[in-house]
Amino acid sequence: MTSTRTLVRRASLAATAVTAALVLAACGGDDGSDTAADARTSPSASADASADAHNDQDVSFAQGMIPHHQQAVQMAEMAADRASSAEVKDLASRIRKAQDPEIRAMSGWLKAWGEDVPSAAPGMDHSGHSGGSGMAGMMDQEDMDKLSKASGEDFDTMFLTMMVEHHEGAVEMAEAEKTKGRYGPATELADAVITAQTAEIEEMNKLLGKNGG
């Protein structure tokens, strides 16, 4: 009897330990320290882990921010051979490097959720600078055409002016996600967008002042 009770007790303790480990694992990452970075580097894994823990706002955020980021990347790519300022070229390079992996992350979430992944180019049949719901700060095709034809200091000023507006739109979208979103990696990415792009807006405004813009 004694040995039987001991075995039962050991089994119970083992089960309790496993449950505790699972609870700790589920709670891990809530401090936000590495989750946003992990989400950007392995979006499908993050999405699969809690594919049901999202809401319509999360879907709207990802579907809106992907083409928004795609346009920013295209604008940044133009700077490589059109900008005259080394500072503008450096900023454009940083924007491209930051937003490419974020696009991949958000695409991974949408695929895991069974939602459509946007595959539109800048211009994207949206009219005006706020073309469509959740697309604040987007440039229209006329804007993009003007930027693509500019060069030198004219390009620098136009790029910075447009990108400030573009970033302000992204921050607005990210703030809505932080307030209404449910999916942890998405709200954390939104927080990262707000932090990074607010700093870049300040940097660009200073460059505009330096350029006399």
Summarize this, please?
With 213 residues, this protein is an all-alpha fold. It has 8 helices and no strands.
Domains, number = 2
CATH class of the largest domain: Mainly Alpha
The appropriate CATH architecture of the largest domain is: Up-down Bundle
Number of strands: 0
Unreliable sequence segments: 4-49, 122-134
Spell the H/E element sequence.
HHHHHHHH
Polypeptide structure, described:
This protein is mainly α. It has 2 domains: 1-30; 32-210, Ferritin. The protein has helices spanning 2-27, 35-41, 43-49, 56-82, 86-113, 141-149, 152-180, 184-210. The radius of gyration is 22 Å and the shape is elongated. The model is unreliable at 4-49 and 122-134 (pLDDT under 50).
How are the elements arranged and paired?
Layout lengths: L1 H26 L7 H7 L1 H7 L6 H27 L3 H28 L27 H9 L2 H29 L3 H27 L3
Key traits:
single chain, 213 residues, mainly alpha, Ferritin, 2 domains, 8 helices, elongated
